[in-house]
What does this fold into?
Amino acid sequence: MKMGKHYNQALIIVFFALFYVTISLAQIFSGWLSERLGWQFFMLTGMLIAAIGLGIVSYFEDFMPIVILSSHIERLNCNKELKVY
It folds into this structure.
């Protein structure tokens, strides 16, 4: 998988594809939840998850755990539709 200090191009393409598929599927549910719970809840939760993630990232020496962790965080943190009234 890892070639020296460079990652395989096929592996990068797979992670990008998984990222966009995850976002596409999560938008269906997060949009519905955002209408029920309010966008403020999702904004605050997303900021809290991002802050915790930044603290955790400093403990990793390799890049792969960060990619896996960020894909899970993005799944929870997508579709922030800001409504101005």
